[in-house]
């Protein structure tokens, strides 16, 4: 059992053993806390199959990112790495709904996992809503959502919510020490700061070796960067061609570094607050924007340098 899942399992199993189980469940929490793993294991319990034997089970349907286009679909068919779309499309929902016109194959229950449901296209979300409004008997929906507020309110209102909490820094550090014993203290600290309580994200960030990136950010926040040298160092550490996951990790790390700097004794905390707001904006744009890595690194560095001007304390 993953960290922090005890309450979710208790609620799920209580409902599973009850007379009238809700037909739609919203699994809400930060990216990387294990919601997808829970959804699959819960679906296995629902249809009565061991997870080890559940791959391609006919009564467990998962909707997630599909190949971006026909070219990428051919790569998948050939067993090659392929690029995925940025959203779950209406054709996928329509295909799922076509299956709902038949009874479950091996039993009397069927599970539909949508991961992540907050990345459904608008038309796909509207189509899904119709299935949630009139669910076939024996069909249960598990909607994984990193940002539930992005879902249609009408979808949220038809779901029972299971919340997945974040994990404490101490627990995260023990987990990283156990699973990534080769990671040094700085790398673990940076991964924990960037992950925001998400074990899966922390493990991913350890693999990205963010320790030196975090140290460079702290240096800019501590001293500013009047000669732009620290910003150049930061850009080099981020890399010339970072993928989307590395960019996301860097932005999360920068947000965490700035948030930790907020201090009620500051003479003027507005530069720190403004910097954090800008980093939140960039993070929100990251999934859909094609950032130039060098320009993004300089923008992050400039925001951190501005926040450094708020270091003077009101009490002198």
TrEMBL record:
Q: Does the keyword Transferase apply?
A: yes
Pfam families in alphabetical order: DNA_pol3_delta2
Record-listed E.C. numbers = 2.7.7.7
Question: What top-tier enzyme class does this entry carry?
Answer: transferase
Q: Which GO terms describe its biological process?
A: DNA-templated DNA replication
Is Transferase tagged as a keyword? yes
Which GO terms label this protein's molecular function in UniProt? DNA-directed DNA polymerase activity
- Please tell me one Gene Ontology term that the record gives under cellular component: DNA polymerase III complex
For this UniProt record, give its keywords in alphabetical order, as a comma-separated list.
Nucleotidyltransferase, Transferase
Q: Which InterPro entries match?
A: DNA_Rep/Repair_Clamp_Loader (IPR050238), P-loop_NTPase (IPR027417)
Put simply, this protein is called: DNA polymerase III subunit delta
Taxonomic path: Bacteria, Pseudomonadati, Pseudomonadota, Alphaproteobacteria, Sphingomonadales
């Amino acid at each position: 059992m993953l960290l922090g899942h005890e309450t979710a399992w208790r609620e799920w199993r209580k409902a599973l053993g009850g007379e009238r189980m809700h037909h739609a469940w919203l699994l809400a929490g930060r990216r990387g806390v294990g919601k997808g793993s829970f959804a699959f294991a819960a679906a296995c319990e629902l249809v009565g199959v061991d997870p080890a034997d559940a791959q391609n089970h006919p009564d467990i349907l998962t909707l997630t990112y599909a190949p971006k286009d026909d070219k990428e679909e051919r790569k998948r068919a050939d067993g090659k790495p392929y690029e995925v779309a940025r959203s779950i499309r209406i054709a996928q929902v329509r295909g799922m709904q076509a299956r709902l016109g038949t009874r479950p194959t091996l039993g009397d229950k069927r599970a539909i996992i949508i991961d992540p449901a907050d990345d459904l296209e608008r038309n796909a979300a509207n189509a899904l809503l119709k299935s949630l409004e009139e669910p076939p008997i024996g069909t249960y929906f598990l909607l994984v959502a990193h940002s539930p507020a992005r879902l249609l309110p009408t979808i949220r209102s038809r779901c029972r919510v299971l919340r997945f909490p974040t994990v404490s820094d101490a627990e995260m550090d023990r987990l990283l020490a156990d699973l990534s014993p080769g990671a040094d203290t700085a790398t673990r600290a940076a991964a924990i700061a960037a992950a925001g309580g998400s074990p899966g994200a922390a493990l991913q960030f350890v693999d990205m070796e963010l320790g030196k990136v975090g140290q460079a950010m702290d240096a800019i926040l501590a001293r500013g960067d009047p000669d732009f040298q620290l910003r150049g160092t930061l850009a080099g550490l981020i890399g010339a061609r970072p993928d989307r996951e590395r960019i996301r990790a860097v932005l999360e790390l920068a947000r965490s570094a700035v948030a930790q700097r907020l201090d009620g004794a500051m003479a003027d905390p507005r530069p720190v607050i403004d910097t954090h707001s800008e980093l939140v904006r960039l993070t929100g744009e990251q999934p859909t924007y094609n950032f130039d890595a060098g320009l993004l690194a300089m923008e992050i560095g400039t925001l951190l340098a501005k926040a450094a001007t708020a270091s003077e304390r009101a009490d002198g």
